Amino acid sequence: MTGSNHQLLAQENDVFATCARIKYFDVVLDHGKGAVLTDVEGNHYLDLLASASATNTGHAHPTVVKAIQDQAAKLTQYTPAYFANSTTAKLAKRLAAIAPMSGPVEVAWGNSGSDANDAIIKFARAYTGRQYIVSFTGAYHGSTYGSLTLSGVSLNMTRKLGPLLPGVVKVPFPSPWEQEADESDEHFVNRYFKAFKEPFETYLPADEVAVIVIEAIQGDGGIAMMPPAFMQKIYDFAKEHGILFAVDEVNQGMGRTGKWWSIQNFPGIEPDMISTAKSLASGLPLSAVIGRKAIMESLGAPANVYTTAGNPVTSAAALATIDVIEKEHLLARSQKLGAKAKAYFEAAKEKYPFIGGVRMYGLDGGIDIVNPVTGAPDEEATTKLIYRVFELGAIIISLRGNILRFQPPLVITEEQLDQVFKIFDQAFAELAAGKLALPAAAKEMGW
Ligand SMILES: Cc1ncc(COP(=O)(O)O)c(C=O)c1O
């Protein structure tokens, strides 16, 4: 296929299902390098989305590319569902070594974050012999039936799809914007813990609950960190009632927050299982559940096998990804550049009253755009901003309509970050001056 962005999109449109893309900009990507994407017309963009946090090592990282090429020439596929291969076996050991839990752990492979979260449901039910699962509003856990049932962030994810998986109960997530202006942190946490306990006190026997599944920092829910005191309360509750505690690290793991796993931002919390995917293999389709050995041994084969899961090429990419994160000190880099980005957006907040909140955990940010007078989410202003940023040469999308999602590849250079800030300087100033118009396709854009 050759042609302009619009020609190619028009061709694709004839045969592409609407439900398979959240629309933002009319761009067709051709190649990428580091933090820069290039479209089919040769336009360059600084990438502030990193393929939805799936390319933390940047685009076409030479170490990852070489590992993929070498492995593809050696053994492209043999299913670990029947026979082990040397590359995937090595990766299992490596992943177990960086798991955020003490004691022996085991790994089970999948192809996507969604199926890894389904697997968490399977292991939890099998190990505990209990049926109920608790998850949070605002969560995005994936698009298979199990994981979409756990999710609670978009009506289109469940509309027309029921009946969903039985036994999943949702409790409200304490998103930072839900805290009243004059409410203390303690009151906020207690208010949400009370809401958390309500089902358990009225219709959900705690001794029939298998697992609580959380995103420690909700990604699609707005890059929103669970208050540590709230986390501690629900963790203690889980321990008290023999409920497993599972953390979805699909979006926030693999160095995104400046730690291997986002749960490591919460000292003292040790999950029983985590799910990982996306950046695990620098965006190649590989996922894993890593869990305590006894839990992972509660199922017999073939309860969780997939023909292409733990594929040797994706495993080689994952080994190379871990090498790059270690050798290029990407955890420290995420912290350092994240602090720089935080300082930039906080200074912008002082200047522009339409910036209502800035959250940044490593290179992992959510910036709320609000009506300066009422403080209410301002979706129009957000769409104007992201579109202007796109015109000026960077790709950023919105979450929940009014939150800028700031997740560049962790290899972004300081110079590139400075360029990004210049772009925002201009876009913010133009929004403040009333110079930005809504793009023609605004109604179709975003979640
Ligand atoms: C936190 C989280 N969990 C699970 C998923 C689903 O992963 P996948 O799209 O690879 O199935 C996503 C994807 O955005 C995610 O952000």
Total number of beta strands: 17
Number of domains: 2
The level-1 CATH class of the largest domain: Alpha Beta
Task: Supply the CATH superfamily name of the largest domain.
Answer: Type I PLP-dependent aspartate aminotransferase-like (Major domain)
Shape: globular
Approximately how much beta-strand content do the residues carry? 15-25%
Biggest sheet overview: 7 strands, mixed
Strand order of the largest sheet: 4-12-11-10-7-5-6
Q: Within the CATH hierarchy, at the fold level, what is the topology of the largest domain? A: Aspartate Aminotransferase, domain 2
Output the helix-strand order. Answer: HEEEHHHEHEHEHEEEHEEEHHHEEHEEEH
Instruction: Indicate the low-confidence ranges by residue numbers.
Output: none
Rg from Cα: 22 Å
The small-molecule ligands in this entry are: pyridoxal-5'-phosphate
User: Would you tell me the structural class of the helices and strands?
Assistant: alpha/beta
Family: Belongs to the class-III pyridoxal-phosphate-dependent aminotransferase family.
Cofactor: pyridoxal 5'-phosphate
Protein name: Aspartate aminotransferase family protein
Pfam families: Aminotran_3 (PF00202)
Structure in a nutshell:
The protein is 37% helix and 16% strand. By secondary structure, the chain is an alpha/beta fold.
List keywords for this structure.
aminotransferase; 7-stranded mixed β-sheet; 17 strands; alpha/beta; pyridoxal phosphate; 4-stranded mixed β-sheet; transaminase activity; 13 helices; Aspartate Aminotransferase, domain 1; 37% helix; Class-III_PLP-dep_AT; 447 residues; 2 domains
